[in-house]
Amino acid sequence: MLNRQIHLVSRPQGLPEENNFKLFETHMPKPEEGQVLVQCLYLSVDPAMRGMMRDIKSYVPPYQLNEVLTGEVIGRVSESKHSNFAPGDFVVGRLGWEDYSVCNGENLRKIDPNPAPITTHLGTLGVPGLTAYFGLLDIGKPQPDETVVVSGAAGAVGMVVGQIAKLKGCRVVGIAGSDKKTQYLINELGFDTAINYKTTENVKSTLKEACPNGVDVYFDNVGGDITDSVIKLINQEARIVLCGQIALYNLEKRDVGPRLFPVILTKRAMIKGFIIHDYEARYQEAITQLSEWIGQGKILYNENIVNGLESAPNAFKGLFKGENLGKQLVKIAD
Amino acid sequence: MLNRQIHLVSRPQGLPEENNFKLFETHMPKPEEGQVLVQCLYLSVDPAMRGMMRDIKSYVPPYQLNEVLTGEVIGRVSESKHSNFAPGDFVVGRLGWEDYSVCNGENLRKIDPNPAPITTHLGTLGVPGLTAYFGLLDIGKPQPDETVVVSGAAGAVGMVVGQIAKLKGCRVVGIAGSDKKTQYLINELGFDTAINYKTTENVKSTLKEACPNGVDVYFDNVGGDITDSVIKLINQEARIVLCGQIALYNLEKRDVGPRLFPVILTKRAMIKGFIIHDYEARYQEAITQLSEWIGQGKILYNENIVNGLESAPNAFKGLFKGENLGKQLVKIAD
User: Fold this and answer.
1) What residue segments make up the domains of chain B, in order of their start?
2) Cys bridge to A204: A150, A229, B66, B243, which one at CB 3.0-4.6 A?
3) Cβ of B262 and A243 within 8 Å?
4) Which member of A254, A265, A271 has the closest CB to residue B258?
5) Hey, which CATH number is domain A127-277, 3.40.640.10, 3.40.50.720, 3.90.850.10, 3.40.50.670?
């Protein structure tokens, strides 16, 4: 039996293209003592992977060319030589984009297939949900009646941010890239309003109308022009949570924009970048709370699932076209 | 006897010019019940006044045209109908740019003419010193062996920032606009090194050499290109204290610069703007500590004093040409 893998074969210039990736067939890996063989069931397709495709050192090392891509994966243990895992266990962790992965159990967590579907461990109960939870609550610190704006609002992180902000009694304004998305945010998730930045003629004035009391917390998934427009509306002591800058990930050189530090200064605002892994010690707290909210129907989620390992590169490309409503997943096996 | 006053008669476009200001002679003010008549001795000439010359609402209201300018002033009480003040008291507060001011005692503080000269209450023991103290210690939170970079390092705030950072065991790098200033910072104030941004060909690479371990705290008085160069060198969890953006104050339209949020994000850095008045309740703590350091010779200061109320507009203009080494004052009377 062969093991299929997706390799990065060239580094994207600008938007990723299908020819940056290639499907290879290789031999089935065998676990050694202390290792686990995992059958991959679902891959998480994540905008942050774009950064690792550049050949620069960041908070994680870049992907190597002609090696298997890695990302968050849900799988089932097929064979275990590790005392913590047994065949049949469902697990989540950083594994390869392949049919079967071997790993030493580090960073591999067992997950409970009940009560929420296992795929939520790549979304609302996984890295995106944890990112929303800690970024919003720990850095944004939303207070009742404050206005929270979230960009990339219909993505896996943004949806959870907006819903938690509603639970905290805030006015919530989402920014997303299609009417289907904005309607979903308003009608299904209870956002107070949402703006389609692609069809709105004047995003700044529309935002201003949507935020009659200004902006207290801005959860930024996108960067660029949208972020400029939001920052111009911030209130005193506003908190800006830098979570992602997807608008800038595919630019070949550094973009320019208006200098907004004078606004940050006179508003005594705070901007903080964060990386979810810094919160690892507190993951369980968030998972417990998010599971409770999901169980109570207070946090809804949406998944966009495509089938087949071979579809993964195209799904990744789609992230930057704004094709996904909620978490983008690839299903590899049942 | 007449009272001379400096009025703002037109709003500067770009750099302030002498014809934006005019000296008027008016009648001597008389204090009413509950008021104090103060003879002004020294005016503080402060870059932040530039912001108040624009006709826009900020954290303080803008100056009105054809009215007396206001700023931090040291004076001596000439006549008092207020129970807290007696003739002969030295005071500091927000008063007019004029020979004599009447005020109701709000925001007027008595100062001790010993042990430090009264002028220090416009510098190291005044708003600039307090700004340095709280901005650096409360927001920047420098730790021993960290690298602290301060721009506008030879100004009234920057000098104190660098010296406090040295007291906290940091490597301190100053950025200033002349060799006279950088030599003063290194030879007199004990900065580890200082960079003359006007004559250094490649500020970015020179900064990189000056900060071999990266930048942990950046105290920003200037904004613009210099700030871009520093931000590119920040370490993980760096703190950027936004205190001033003097490079941008005289621009007629908003400047553009590289988008650096991706750097802030991947470095999990924090940027915080602040206004010294938010710390009013804690001023005494800072004044006590700074006075002690001055008394022990651990914090030195430099003042640039010009004579005569009529010299004030030109001294203000000089701030933006980088003429002052330390606090810029105007002496009005003995």
Assistant:
1) 2-123+302-331, 127-277
2) A229
3) no
4) A254
5) 3.40.50.720
